[in-house]
Write a structure and sequence with these properties.
CATH architecture: 3-Layer(aba) Sandwich
Shape: globular
InterPro entries: RlmJ, SAM-dependent_MTases_sf
Strand order of the largest sheet: 5-4-1-6-7-9-8-10
CATH superfamily: Vaccinia Virus protein VP39
Organism: Paenibacillus dokdonensis
Radius of gyration: 18 Å
Bound molecules: S-adenosylmethionine
Protein name: 23S rRNA (Adenine(2030)-N(6))-methyltransferase RlmJ
Helix content: 25-40%
Mean pLDDT: 94
Number of domains: 1
Largest sheet: 8 strands, mixed
């Protein structure tokens, strides 16, 4: 999946809105332990010439779109990302989910612990170089995500939130494997009552998650003809113990329907 595309934008927007409601402001700050099973790099350069979701938002920002302007401060994701829209004319530094969560929590004066797993050795080495001891709250490891998560749980560690964000690409069989791994880890997380989010794309057919129901997910349609790789819809499933936030977060992102991008929150 190309960084900064429609699916990434929706995923990151829902993620930051959720992290915000899970971390109410207290006088003493607080802690938040975030665990990501499938990490990827710290950031990717997204070409301004692409038709990705973030570039489309960037263009609206520069044209002064009134609805985007009206949500720039209140929407946690836009509030963070828009500062990068003016950086370089040719590209946008597009940050990964775990970097966004770390940066966002830091602005809330919360001390996070961010655990990130990345199985690919080259991605890991590039990222560790980029992190370069600058982010002591980020623990980035070259490990398989589900195994490390299970190890953590077996040691008594209890993350405040887990993001499960695998690839669902390849042959039908590979996609099936990915979905069944998600179905399995969700059983483990439910057993320990750990709050989690599962991101998924919708291409021609829906993926079969055992735990999806009418009330625990947000899906957004992408009726765009010019997208480089067309993703019909994308969604985020919330664990049952945080699904009471679905309605509020859905309301918070309803403005997406009015940006003229062909996006529709379902
Ligand atoms: C979809 S990307 C993650 C994007 C990131 N979560 C974000 O939103 O910015 C998936 C990443 O997970 C890595 N990966 C794939 N399988 C993995 C596994 N079993 N454990 C850990 N990392 C894995 C891939 O190498 C890739 O970099």
């Amino acid at each position: 999946m190309a960084a900064g595309n429609f699916g990434d934008v929706i995923k990151h927007m829902i993620l930051l809105e959720l992290v915000d409601v899970l971390t109410p402001k207290t006088k003493s700050g607080g802690n938040f332990n975030y665990f990501e099973t499938h990490g990827s790099k710290m950031s990717h350069q997204v070409k301004r010439s692409s038709s990705s979701g973030v570039v489309r938002l960037c263009n609206l920002y520069h044209s002064g779109h009134p609805i985007l302007q009206a949500n720039l401060n209140s929407n946690k994701y836009l509030n963070f990302i828009h500062q990068y829209f003016t950086q370089a004319p040719a590209s946008i530094d597009y940050f990964s989910s775990w970097y966004l969560v770390n940066a966002f929590l830091t602005t809330k004066e919360i001390t996070p612990r961010i655990d990130v797993c990345e199985i690919n050795r080259d991605t890991y080495l590039d990222t560790i170089k980029a992190i370069n001891y600058k982010f002591p709250t980020i623990h980035y490891s070259n490990t398989e995500g589900y195994s490390l998560l299970k190890t953590y749980l077996s040691k008594g560690l209890r993350p405040s939130l887990v993001l499960i964000d695998p690839f669902y690409s390849g042959s039908d069989k590979e996609v099936q494997v990915s979905v069944s791994e998600v179905n399995h880890i969700v059983e483990v997380l439910d057993f320990y009552r750990i709050p989690f989010l599962v991101w998924y794309p919708v291409y021609s057919k829906k993926l079969k998650f055992n735990f999806i129901n009418a009330n625990n997910h947000i899906e957004v349609d992408n009726n765009t003809n010019n997208a480089a790789s067309h993703m019909n819809s994308t969604g985020m499933i919330f664990s049952n113990n945080i699904s009471h936030h679905v309605l509020g977060i859905r309301n918070d992102i309803l403005f997406l329907d009015h940006l003229g991008l062909g996006w529709k929150v379902k």
